[in-house]
Amino acid sequence: MLPDPICAPATPLLPSAVAVLRVSGPDLGRQLAPLLSLPQPRVASLRQLCWDGFREKALVLYFPGPASYTGEDLVELQVHGNPLLVRRLLDHLGHLGIRLAEPGEFTRRALLNGKQGLLEAEALRDLVAAETDTQVRLAQARAGAQPAWIQEAQEALAPWMARAEAAVDYGEEEGILLNIGYLSTCLIPLRARFHVEQSRARAAHHLREGLRLVLVGRPNAGKSTLFNALAGEDRAIVTELPGTTRDVLEVRCEWRGLPLRLFDTAGLREATEPVERLGVARVAPLLAAADLILHLIPATDGSADVMILEVLTPFLAKVLEVRTFGDQAQPEGTLISALKGELNALETALKERLLGGLAPESCLGALATERQLGLLDDLVTQLDLLTELKVGCPPELPASLLQGAWGLLARLTGNDRADSALDALFSGFCLGK
């Protein structure tokens, strides 16, 4: 059964000079005949569109399948960017039997028709959603061909899968044995590569999502000054009066290649004013959701405030102590002076704690989504088990582990995909994609 023809705006429905509509499906020449005649393939041509009393000049591009984005006939209509006009044209396309596409349906058809892979589709989604330069570069680096190490892994596992299955099926009858020691030795380089890719993927995942940093400390600990320095603009009011910040301030920015989601909080102390108490009360939920909590302590203070330490006790694993006003004293630890722009120590600490010491540039091309990272973690577990097998174990065990690793690679690339996984992926796309 042939799929339904679909249409959608490929540009936002906002007043603009040009709006683009996409149509995809079988036999579009016949489907669109009441509205226009298709031009020569890949030749932009003007057409006069007339429907329901409307008259519009459109620049039309026609890409016959299978040599198109979706693998089907694909038509793009460029019209004036009046949102009402675009809606009326979409309504008319509906009357011609061309339904409005679901989110991501164009890319889904491209995937199902073999025009792109699952990893490429996920990279495209990330590219559309990217908010910083680093996130754009990460998505672009993952577009195109799948990572070379995946193909190398499949080539390394394939012969061992055949040997293990032969040992299971014909071992007793034909005397086929599986050398477990040799298997483990041969798979050690692959195991090491998986661990490297796992580290890169965890760092890339943080960069893809944006690092949630919460600044906490006593009043006048330098939180707002650091907040402004990282944001690159004066977003928080800075005064010598304690308790200036009453509410949580949030900003998304990129600082030294790190996509950040920054939260400046009210100074933690026994607040007496109602507004300040509300600001302090809002800190706890942020601490639970943070990737890293920067506990700011002035370098001139002898030790941290006991009340603040009690608040941070449940989150100690993700607390980084930062000494502020570093030009006034020289204690040990992460020492900064936000006012003077001396933040190198903080940059080093953030990359060590959140990226495992990796530079953002070294994460380009790494897997990054939650789905990809979960499958990679499972792959690492499978290879760890395979390289730790004891000599003399039954061949069914390595055969099962090898098949499991092979299946995880297939799920990673989309060669063994489930409809539910595709639904989750494409729900995040816009209609025109």
Write the layout of secondary structure elements.
Elements (H helix, E strand, L loop, with lengths): L5 E4 L6 E10 L2 H4 L13 E7 L2 E10 L9 E9 L1 H13 L3 E2 L4 H8 L5 H12 L3 H10 L5 H27 L5 H30 L1 E7 L5 H9 L17 E7 L2 E7 L9 H8 L1 H7 L2 E7 L7 H7 L6 E6 L9 E2 L8 H12 L14 H18 L8 H18 L5 H8 L7
Parallel strand pairs: 1-6, 7-9, 7-10, 10-11, 11-12
Antiparallel strand pairs: 1-2, 2-5, 3-4, 4-5, 8-9
Helix pairs in contact: 4-5, 6-7, 6-14, 7-13, 13-14
Order of helices and strands: EEHEEEHEHHHHHEHEEHHEHEEHHHH
| Class from secondary-structure proportions | alpha/beta
Largest sheet: 6 strands, mixed
Strand content: 15-25%
CATH superfamily of the largest domain: P-loop containing nucleotide triphosphate hydrolases
- Low confidence ranges: 241-246, 271-276, 417-422
Number of strands: 12
Using the alpha-carbon principal axes, give the shape.
flat
Give the overall pLDDT as a whole number: 87
Task: Write down the CATH topology of the largest domain.
Answer: Rossmann fold
List its traits:
alpha/beta, single chain, 3 domains, Rossmann fold, 44% helix, 6-stranded mixed β-sheet, Gyrase A, domain 2, 433 residues, Four Helix Bundle (Hemerythrin (Met), subunit A)
